Amino acid sequence: MDNEKLLDVKNLTISFHTYVGEVAAVRNVDFYLKKSEVLAIVGESGSGKSVSTQAILGLTPIPPGEIKSGKILFKHEDLLKFDEKEMSKICGSQISMIFQDPMTSLNPTMKVGNQIREVLHQHSDISRRESRERAIELMTLVRIPEPEMRIDQYPHELSGGMRQRVMITIAMANRPDILIADEPTTALDVTIQSQIFRLLKELRTKFDTAIILITHDFGVVAGIADRIVVMYAGKVMEEDETDQIYYEPRHPYTVGLLKAVPSLADNEEEKLRTIDGTPPFLLKIPSGCPFADRCEYAMRICKEKEPQYFQSKDSSRVFCWLYHDQADGQLQRFKDREGRLR
Known about the structure:
Elements: E1 5-18, E2 21-34, E3 38-42, H1 49-56, E4 65-74, E5 77-78, H2 84-90, E6 95-98, H3 102-105, H4 112-123, H5 128-141, H6 147-150, H7 160-172, E7 178-182, H8 190-207, E8 210-215, E9 227-232, E10 235-241, H9 242-247, H10 252-259, H11 300-304, E11 309-313, E12 316-319, H12 328-341
Parallel strand pairs: 3-8, 3-9, 6-7, 7-8
Antiparallel strand pairs: 1-2, 1-4, 4-5, 9-10, 10-12, 11-12
Helix pairs in contact: 4-5, 5-7, 7-8
């Protein structure tokens, strides 16, 4: 039901005007987020994941960017109609974001404690002493060791994992309703990645915060996401609950992404699996399905006409001609072959 939706993105279309032409980065994208839910948006680089979510915080650079259509409803109010002052009240307080690289997101000339306290002062009437105590409390919460010492250090004095924890501290300082995590474990080793995701799960439970997790790696979302949106070439290709996506993926692109995740069961001499081909150049939008040239199940209509969404329930849809009534034979071939491979 609509009243359950904390965030509802509808028909979002974003282009970038470059010296070689208009790049259609996001095309008619819809997704929603419920209170305390974790939604993972998964896809290759350039699929439109980050561009879609940056628009929620008003971070689309205009120009060269242009939001051509759509609505971003947060608590039933359209954020695209908010001015800069109105957005500044929401950003960092009700909606926060963790960016990919903490070294470029944190100010190298400011102590990390001051950067945390700055966010607290921006959105609440709090004394300097109280903000320091609150910053130490938050750093303890995200398990930064010796927070009383770390609060007076600069970003370069911290490890990559601790810098990312500082970013999480800043994002969670005002207990937002929504946390957007854009590739939050980029360049971290697998042990630290696991710790960061465990921390996000704990914060979600403690503060009842909804999370949008942006990633290209299916391997990291199984243990944290409730639902998954798969994006490709600026379009949503599939949306479903996490278990359904993992055990019964419906789109050939989703299947390809899942196959590309390394497994302990793989033969050590076997090559890592990839999806052949490259994404389309979005200066010239394909007339049919954007994945058609890379899809071994593509039919003639796939290259001639854009698919419609085939929906089985509110949280499940797929952007693929295989699910048309007249494609039963090809759909069965897809299910039989991929079922054997799984």
